[in-house]
Amino acid sequence: MPLNPAYASKTPDPDGLYAYTKEEIAVWRDLFLRQMEFLPSCACSSYLSGVKMLGLSADTVPQVKEIDARLKALTGAGVKGVEVIIPQAEFSTLLSNRKFPVATFIRTREDMDYLEEPDIFHEVFGHAPMLTSEAFCQFLERFGALALSLPKHQIKHLYRLFWFTVEFGMIREGGQLKTFGAGIMSSPAEAAFATSGDAEMVEFDLMTVLRTDYRIDIVQPVYFVIKSFEQLADVIKRDMRSIIAEAQRLGDLPRRFEVAA
Questions:
Q1: Closest C-alpha among 190, 177, 225 to residue 31
Q2: Exposure class string for 115-137: b at 16+ Cβ within 10 A, else e
Q3: Which end of the chain has fewer CB atoms within 10 angstroms, the N or the C?
Q4: CB 25 within 8 A of CB 87
Q5: pTM (2 d.p.)
């Protein structure tokens, strides 16, 4: 179920296409144009080239089947239309098969700056361009397989790795900090803060990431910076079960945010 009951996934027609209203297309256009005003100066090269390879534009909301076909040709990855929120096991299974789930609704204007639920702007504009990177796809594939193999009590810590990379990751590229996390790319408020110079940037360290808690309803107080997507793909090859067990033994680091009431 979605966090906001006003949002519901769309149903495709017999051809696998989703219908969007003029207002929904206008919301996509305005979000796309607003983000692309400054992302070219702060987004990583893999993301920007991915936008071009997938043919994303302000003209209309992309169709899931078309993005899926383009990704399949590029990296063997793909996307699949799903309900707004799906079970963790289903999510992990899709990742292990190089498929990324896509909630097909789009936010309303009241939620333009930030939305807790993943909508199609977050999924396609935020995530899909990175699926054109082979190293990034390797990380997701290995992550999904690992999530399916770990005991339930370790899943929360594993998904901290997902949160601080796939959703809110930063990368050092050509000596400069660049964004690649979908939560930054698709949220005007998050992108503005992450690139403001005021955000706390920490060099990526797996144990630190696993011991760092987060909240989904605020702008992130800290971002982790990787050196390359190959580094990310290699991290997941380690003995994660033992590493997570050690992180749990050590306990969480002090929170950088207030606990929600």
A1: 190
A2: bebbbbbbbbbbbbbbbbbebbb
A3: C
A4: no
A5: 0.93
